Amino acid sequence: MSTVERTATGARPRPRTTPDVGAALLAVLVLAALAAPLLAPHDPEAVQSARVLGSPSASYPFGSDVLGRDVLSRVLYALRVSLTVAVSAVGVATLVAVPLGLLAGYAGGWVDSLISRPLDMLLVLPALLLAISLIAILGPGSVVAALAIAVIYLPILARVMRSSTLVVTRNEYVVVARARGAGHLRVMARHVLPNAIGPVAVQASVLTGFALQLEAALSFLGLGTQPPTPSLGGMLADGRDVLTQAPWVEVFPGLAIAVAVIAFTLLGDGLRRSLDPTGVAS
User: Fold this and answer.
1) Which of 64, 67, 152, 177 has its CA 20 to 30 A from that of 235?
2) Which CATH number is 16-45+61-275's, of 1.10.10.10, 3.40.50.720, 1.10.3720.10, 1.20.1250.20?
3) What is the pLDDT at residue 186?
4) What is the reported pLDDT for 208?
5) Burial category of 136 from C-beta neighbours within 10 Å (exposed 0-12, middle 13-18, buried 19 and up)
6) Which residues contact residue 20 at a Cβ distance below 8 angstroms, ignoring those fewer than 6 apart?
7) Three-state DSSP state, 221
8) Would you state the pLDDT for residue 11?
């Protein structure tokens, strides 16, 4: 399409840099987490009294913490844990939310109310308070933290799927499929779901970044991943008392969280732009 034709139709060329940057940055983080045993220069749990609060050096690029443990090695292993918890939590929430939102939006009426009202009740509670309450009942740990985060984001994803389904079901191809005698399950599976899942994928990508932050917050409070397993939130908790004396203990885990959240946000923005049929960001 020429420049004149674009101007006449009102469409703009679709940006290609944002999805590439988000996907590339996330790929680097995932590869670093998966290759942690190969990339980590030291044992992340090895205590070395001679290296307590050691400054960054060639052997210890990120320095060492209050127990002399290598910060770089711990960041790599902690990134693996945080990504696993965040991705698994949002994945479980998505698997449950998609059929619930699809059914609520397609069926409407009392079915919609039966599904939506309990989910709306979960949205009333603050995310961190709800997570702490669930962990207080089930006990701390990375698995329980992932489950708590999944419960928090379930109603959000279900509402997005419901809204998208309501829009798709008004399209002509859905009406035609019904008129031709297609069953409800066939219409939902073949016509509604493939065209309504896009906004859910975008929302899930963005929520994964928030889930990583929430996992770090729970670990910071001692409710998430338990020692001696490295966690980004736990490393932040260890470094808060020595922030002025050894800032590297706090800075590098914080940077890892920030970069991961930016990567998921850019990926979500890229997906939104790619799934926008007009190529124009809303």
Assistant:
1) 152
2) 1.10.3720.10
3) 81
4) 94
5) exposed
6) 270
7) coil
8) 46
